[in-house]
Hints:
Layout: H1 8-15, E1 19-22, E2 25-35, E3 63-68, E4 71-77, E5 86-96, H2 98-105, E6 114-115, H3 117-124, E7 142-145, E8 153-156, E9 170-173, H4 186-192
Antiparallel strand pairs: 1-2, 1-7, 2-5, 2-9, 3-4, 4-5, 5-6, 8-9
Helix pairs in contact: 2-3
Amino acid sequence: MSWLDPSTLVTARLLLGAVLRRGPVAVRITEVEAYAAADDPASHAWKGPTRRNAVMFGPPGRLYTYAMHGHTCANVICTPEGVGGGVLLRAGEVVLGLEDARTRRGDVADHRLARGPGNLTRALGITMVDGGAELFDPESPFSLTPGDEEPEISAGPRVGVSRAADVAWRFWITGDPTVSAYRLARAAARDIQPG
Length: 195
């Protein structure tokens, strides 16, 4: 049974400190971004269901994957069926399977193994084939368990989006070294620059 909340903003906070495991590697989630549906022009679900984003509109508790800049990104779907919202997994700390994660990521410092959405999926071995995978089914190669404690959380604008760039829907564990660097999208930077 899923412990996710139907609201992406609530689930984003719940996911901080949670552990996502795939096979021998597990990552404690330290940074996320919430994406709503019809009210959020930065969301893949904004214009409604398509073949590409269908998982976002399916039942909650699944993984939505998409490719960006040659990397796979992964979202946890939490909204009710037909709504289309999710939470992007941006960064984490490898807490199990360190050697496997290092093999997949190469010669980088441990705190950088799952820092950034593409690095997180690579450390876990997540690819586009994993789109639609169930996170709470005992038969699934994935498991998602809540964290042991409630961390101190910071919030700020999402990274690299050109629409709704000022919305503070990125959440991270305050002071955690695995949190990725903030980068404003170029289009958003042009829109926000003072006169």
